[in-house]
Amino acid sequence: MTAYRRMSVPLTDGELTVGVWGSGSRAVLAVHGITSSHQAWRLVAERLPEDTLLIAPDLRGRGDSAALPGPYGMARHADDCAAVLDALGCADAVVAGHSMGGFVALVLADRHPQRVQRLILVDGGPPLPLPPGETPEEQLAAVIGPAAARLTMRFHDREAYRDHWHAHPAFADWSPAVEAYVDYDLTGEPGELRSKASADAVRDDSVDLYTGGAAAGAWARLRHEVQFLRAEFGMLGALPGLYQDPAPIAARMPVRTVDGSNHYTILLGTHGAASVAETL
């Protein structure tokens, strides 16, 4: 198994937690999704050569970086990622982003172009239509469903939290990697356990992702080598996929649909993770 360690990267307003797998001079910066953590990249990291250094931060407001304050947004996350590369002594890296992380990756390439060798966008990054709903909370719930609901929920114990994830239709295939991902997200005291992800961060990032100028501008100015990996199925493990029509994306970059994967298992399933690792 690829060696794994966790480190803290000092920022001006606190510390960012970063998971690091492997070693060597070939760096991959891996950026997770809107309610996720660096643990989403575990299966991918374990499928990369030992001489590849996979660097996966917990974005501010998530995981063990949850205490870092706002403002949030794609530009703020991109600048935090550049600081992570500085801390690891990496002049540049291949940058992979999943879901919201794809948007962060695009903005990183736009704001810090010399730090990015090439981009791998994993079911995220290309523009998405504004979801239905009158408030950011309603729009977020329309897109990610149970993942949004859990941010305000409280759980009696660890098993209750696992049961909540077991019921998620996209996680029909439970595995040790999924369990580690779920367990890492849990914080608080027994009887009042909750997700580490900040509801404020998730809401603000959702607004910025859909309506902010940073991601839209980065997409318009895209100039790096890039490949898009598309999950066949969507957030709830069924058709349609998050990106229903890949044709507009294929007009700008190579697109590969990972058959049988959904928005989550494209990273947290063995077939999906192998496909991402192969592309990296």
TrEMBL record:
Keyword NADP: no
Keyword annotations from UniProtKB, A to Z: Hydrolase
SUPFAM superfamilies: alpha/beta-Hydrolases
Keyword Chloroplast applies: no
Pfam family, one: Abhydrolase_1
Domain AB hydrolase-1: 27-149
Record's protein name: AB hydrolase-1 domain-containing protein
Species of provenance: Streptomyces lannensis
